[in-house]
Amino acid sequence: MEKLKRIQLKDVEITHGFWANRQKINRDITIYAVRDRFEDTGRFKAFDFGYTPENGEIKPHFFWDSDIAKWIESASFIIEKTPNAELQSKIEEIINKIEEHQDENGYFNIYHTVVEPDNRFKDRSHHELYCLGHLIEAAVAYYNATGKDRFINILDKFIDHVIKVFTEEMSSAFSTPGHEEIELALYRLYEVRPDEKYIKLAEFFLNERGKEGDGVYGWDNEAYNQSHKPVREQFEALGHCVRANYLYAGMADEARNAEDEKMFEACKALFDDMANKKMYISGGIGSTHHGEAFTIPYDLPNDSAYAETCASISLAMFSNRLKDLDINSKYADMVERQIYNGIISGISLDGKSFFYENPLEINLSDRRRHTSVNHSDRLPITQRLEVFDCSCCPPNVTRLIANIGEYIYSYDDNRIFVHQYIGSTAVFDGSQIDTETEYPADGKIKITVANAKNKRLYLRIPSWCESFKINAGYNMYNGYAEIEINSDMFEISLELEIRPVLIAASPKVRADAGAAAVMMGPILYCAEGIDNDFDLWDAKINQSTEIKAEYSESFYSNTLRCEISLTDEESIKALYLPLKNVKTKPGTLKLIPYFGFANRGESDMRVWFKLIK
Ligand code: FUB
Ligand code: ZN
Fold it and tell me: What is the pTM of this model?
């Protein structure tokens, strides 16, 4: 097992390009938009602990703490880079309230103080440990941003209480969290405060999971929250996708920390199972809303895809950990697929509204069919919302964007890895690395490394890339171009050929049989009805068609167009017609990046198109 060091947010600046633009929107708009909706819905007010069944205040939900925690984490990432007194004081206001309402014994949870105080740690589905996990991550981010450890100290008291209740007294009604998250958070905390008790607690939760008696949960089966087997024996991704991937991220942390090969093998198998059998082309995971879960291999329906934004984020988090343990570009490829597709499809281009579910097809007339027969299958919504009743995704996507710097580089004593091509400057281990690029709109990448002579540089060659040029000698090593750094100020140019390509799915994916999707570099494309005045389900792409790209400011990337074949008006009128009599006409299909769908009103949308020879 390798142990590359992950770059810290403090060591990297996003300087230009796609992600600098996204971070600006996140910093100027999204963080306030999420804050305001969380104010409107009573989530911030809940920290006053004022709710009583009689006083008419909104009843807090049992994981509102986690929504605000993710907001604090994101705001902390933001102020670490761009000091902002207003955001900092809002964060501190919440920390004060947490301190004020924390129990003597360290316990903190809004719902289980004002709604069900007698049921603490009695209901495994009630997310007390999940909320604590997110609070821990927030406290670590706040500490990294400000150097202040007060928030960590408050939670340390709560963690001591959890250690006592779960591992000493064994007085809780369950032994492991019903929604994983605290495991990875404890490792994260250990990075800034290396106290072994955090690791021991994380190990307790990982090791108890799947043991007999661990499977008690309010609904569904034991696999729903990965309690069907001990974690080292889990090789198939099952159950609720976000739970699964937060758990797997914690498992990867433990594999690294304890050099636990069995755990590592399980992590690799779980990754491969998702990447090779259970993932949409957008990176989305979770084929059904029932349990927000994985189903069976290759079951990837497009219109009813669940593909929760948080699930893509959690898979990116897991993959980002694995890339440092196993040198193979497939992990950073997965991060790339997520960050340009399944994650940012979850946020509108203006940064104010969100998708929780990310379908790969919207057919508005199909939806009318459902109402005409007075029956509605569960289909995702077609328009973004500013907040949801269950609003886990909006604060998650803002924290991911604010923290994207952590995904770019990693290193050890002799090697520097560039996993993502993002315009940035990073300083670590006495060296400095600069990436200059407009990727993914353009494949030209210039990298300068200072003070790293005699180390080796590893540049990821994305799996989608068929041709590339490097202006120096290199060897390929598991998907990375390996290059000797032979001067103190080493400059290198990489040019990845980025062009539109038709992609087919495995024939095992019945939903995409005989169809093709379009990708250009890491970006998946879709067509929307608003750009195309014909039935998208009639569009047939010729396999050898030339797809033309044109840069568009509004998407901060290319839009595409290609010639297609459509049925002519007369033939459309006949319900059935001998094939030889069907007349066709040429048309042009306009495509936009998938992440940009549903930004211009309600519209049909398609990713997969019929192919003709
Ligand atoms: O239960 C907490 C979060 O809400 C989950 O991670 C999401 O899937 C949503 O159910
Ligand atoms: Zn979510």
Answer: 0.98
